[in-house]
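Q: Hi! First time doing this. I have a protein sequence and I read that you can turn it into a structure. Is that right? Here it is:
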Amino acid sequence: MAISKPAKSKNSLKNSEVDAKPSFKETTKKEDILTDNKEVSFPVNIRVDNHIRNKVSALINLGVAKNAKAVVEHMIESEIAELSESEKTRFDRMYNILEQKDYMSKSLK
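A: Yes, that's right. Below is the predicted 3D structure, encoded as C-alpha coordinates:
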Protein backbone atom coordinates (compact mmCIF):
# COMPACT_ATOMS: atom_id res chain seq x y z
CA MET A 1 0.00 0.00 0.00
CA ALA A 2 1.52 3.28 -1.10
CA ILE A 3 1.20 6.47 0.89
CA SER A 4 0.48 9.48 -1.22
CA LYS A 5 1.27 13.08 -0.42
CA PRO A 6 -1.69 15.29 0.39
CA ALA A 7 -2.75 17.50 -2.46
CA LYS A 8 -1.55 21.07 -2.21
CA SER A 9 -4.49 23.39 -1.75
CA LYS A 10 -4.77 26.77 -3.39
CA ASN A 11 -5.29 28.36 0.04
CA SER A 12 -2.16 26.98 1.68
CA LEU A 13 -0.12 29.51 3.64
CA LYS A 14 3.48 30.40 2.97
CA ASN A 15 6.04 29.98 5.77
CA SER A 16 6.29 33.74 6.28
CA GLU A 17 2.52 33.93 6.83
CA VAL A 18 2.57 31.13 9.38
CA ASP A 19 5.42 32.65 11.37
CA ALA A 20 3.74 36.06 11.60
CA LYS A 21 2.76 36.93 15.15
CA PRO A 22 -0.77 38.13 15.81
CA SER A 23 -1.14 41.72 16.91
CA PHE A 24 -3.23 42.59 19.94
CA LYS A 25 -4.82 45.84 20.96
CA GLU A 26 -4.52 47.19 24.48
CA THR A 27 -5.69 44.85 27.19
CA THR A 28 -9.36 44.94 28.03
CA LYS A 29 -10.27 46.25 31.44
CA LYS A 30 -13.02 44.76 33.56
CA GLU A 31 -14.84 48.11 33.50
CA ASP A 32 -15.06 47.89 29.70
CA ILE A 33 -16.99 44.65 29.96
CA LEU A 34 -19.08 45.23 33.07
CA THR A 35 -20.68 48.62 33.32
CA ASP A 36 -22.88 49.93 36.09
CA ASN A 37 -25.93 50.35 33.87
CA LYS A 38 -26.20 46.68 32.91
CA GLU A 39 -28.48 44.76 35.21
CA VAL A 40 -30.92 41.92 35.03
CA SER A 41 -33.92 41.12 37.19
CA PHE A 42 -35.32 37.67 37.73
CA PRO A 43 -37.36 36.06 40.52
CA VAL A 44 -35.56 34.25 43.34
CA ASN A 45 -36.66 32.70 46.62
CA ILE A 46 -35.45 33.54 50.11
CA ARG A 47 -36.06 30.79 52.63
CA VAL A 48 -37.55 31.92 55.94
CA ASP A 49 -39.42 30.11 58.66
CA ASN A 50 -43.16 30.43 59.23
CA HIS A 51 -42.74 33.03 62.00
CA ILE A 52 -40.90 35.47 59.76
CA ARG A 53 -43.41 34.85 56.98
CA ASN A 54 -46.25 35.60 59.41
CA LYS A 55 -44.58 38.85 60.51
CA VAL A 56 -44.21 39.92 56.88
CA SER A 57 -47.88 39.11 56.26
CA ALA A 58 -48.91 41.09 59.35
CA LEU A 59 -46.92 44.12 58.13
CA ILE A 60 -48.65 43.85 54.75
CA ASN A 61 -52.06 43.67 56.48
CA LEU A 62 -51.18 46.81 58.49
CA GLY A 63 -50.52 48.63 55.23
CA VAL A 64 -46.76 49.05 55.70
CA ALA A 65 -46.32 47.77 52.15
CA LYS A 66 -48.47 46.20 49.48
CA ASN A 67 -46.49 42.96 49.12
CA ALA A 68 -43.66 40.90 50.63
CA LYS A 69 -41.11 42.25 48.15
CA ALA A 70 -41.88 45.82 49.25
CA VAL A 71 -41.65 44.87 52.96
CA VAL A 72 -38.23 43.27 52.46
CA GLU A 73 -37.02 46.18 50.32
CA HIS A 74 -38.17 48.68 52.98
CA MET A 75 -36.37 46.76 55.73
CA ILE A 76 -33.19 46.54 53.65
CA GLU A 77 -33.22 50.27 52.90
CA SER A 78 -33.68 50.97 56.63
CA GLU A 79 -30.68 48.78 57.48
CA ILE A 80 -28.51 50.37 54.78
CA ALA A 81 -29.35 53.83 56.11
CA GLU A 82 -27.97 52.79 59.53
CA LEU A 83 -24.59 51.64 58.16
CA SER A 84 -21.44 53.66 58.79
CA GLU A 85 -19.68 55.19 55.77
CA SER A 86 -17.06 52.42 55.67
CA GLU A 87 -19.77 49.76 55.93
CA LYS A 88 -21.75 51.45 53.14
CA THR A 89 -18.64 51.40 50.95
CA ARG A 90 -18.10 47.70 51.66
CA PHE A 91 -21.80 47.00 51.09
CA ASP A 92 -21.75 48.82 47.73
CA ARG A 93 -18.70 46.85 46.58
CA MET A 94 -20.23 43.51 47.56
CA TYR A 95 -23.60 44.44 46.05
CA ASN A 96 -22.00 45.50 42.75
CA ILE A 97 -20.01 42.27 42.55
CA LEU A 98 -23.17 40.22 43.07
CA GLU A 99 -25.07 42.29 40.49
CA GLN A 100 -22.27 41.77 37.96
CA LYS A 101 -22.28 38.05 38.68
CA ASP A 102 -26.05 37.92 38.04
CA TYR A 103 -25.67 39.88 34.82
CA MET A 104 -22.87 37.65 33.56
CA SER A 105 -24.67 34.42 34.46
CA LYS A 106 -27.87 35.51 32.70
CA SER A 107 -26.19 37.07 29.68
CA LEU A 108 -24.27 33.85 28.94
CA LYS A 109 -27.46 31.77 28.73
